[in-house]
Amino acid sequence: xxxxxxxxxxxxxxxxxxxxxxxxxxxxxxxxxxxxxxxxxxxxxxxxxxxxxxxxxxxxxxxxxxxxxxxxxxxxxxxxxxxxxxxxxxxxxxxxxxxxxxxxxxxxxxxxxxxxxxxxxxxxxxxxxxxxxxxxxxxxxxxxxxxxxxxxxxxxxxxxxxxxxxxxxxxxxxxxxxxxxxxxxxxxxxxxxxxxxxxxxxxxxxxxxxxxxxxxxxxxxxxxxxxxxxxxxxxxxxxxxxxxxxxxxxxxxxxxxxxxxxxxxxxxxxxxxxxxxxxxxxxxxxxxxxxxxxxxxxxxxxxxxxxxxxxxxxxxxxxxxxxxxxxxxxxxxxxxxxxxxxxxxxxxxxxxxxxxxxxxxxx
Length: 363
Hints:
Blueprint: H1 2-42, E1 52-59, E2 71-82, E3 93-105, E4 108-116, E5 123-131, E6 137-144, E7 150-157, E8 160-162, H2 172-190, H3 210-232, E9 239-247, E10 256-267, E11 273-285, E12 288-296, E13 305-314, E14 317-325, E15 331-336, H4 344-362
Antiparallel strand pairs: 1-2, 1-9, 2-3, 3-4, 4-5, 5-6, 6-7, 7-8, 9-10, 10-11, 11-12, 12-13, 13-14, 14-15
């Protein structure tokens, strides 16, 4: 009897310690959340460079669709540079500590927040608030430990406390997976090291005459520019993704702003998919600015880069380069300024890296 009583007491103490640990964890997460919100509010102030990534996607489907609601997705990442130092301009790792996603379509709204450990980077907390055009509302809160286990969850339906089974919008596993996917996209943007992933595998020359290749690429470029003008005008059928990055890699580097923009279209036959056709990148800092364009092959079922244009200004000098590629990834024509040191293969590899960013976001 005494042994049984001792066992029961030990179990009760263990449960109390576990409950206390859980309480401490949640308290810590809420403190980190409050600190993150303060940092977000002050980001870019007090003379310090901002560390943010803003992704805006507007999607309106394809011409001729019976019903095409506009989908507007606004994603914000906030991060710090951890490690590194001022000696030799060593840059620190970019660690995202907070992000938000605001999604709107056809009267539906969906807002999410993800809180990450500010040092180690794992997910700590996920919040979702959603509402349909009919007025159905759901709120969820998930708290995670360092191993990705959900230690606490709270649900509301129609502003009233509810159980996890009261809705099917998400669960703790789906939010954990989404948070980790977003973190992967962030790391791809800011923590990817050389070499860049490469588009295509073969580099043997095409059998198509050079004159025809140049003619086809220039015609595709003109058509892409026309579609971009239609996309960007007020009231146009918009299908694009825009990424703005504000960063300062270390104290020895000036603040840099990078703007990436991807244009795509919806292909319906033989099966529906999104086809990218043009990507641009603009970078600005006190050292100068660069502007790059990447034209993708307009042929069906291909996403190969066929043309790259780069224009840069540094120390009062202008640099330009143009690279033309065939369907095998072989650069058959190039026009570059005398002072340009870039080569066609690294340029195309960078195009592969940029393409992979947008491809990851669309999945």
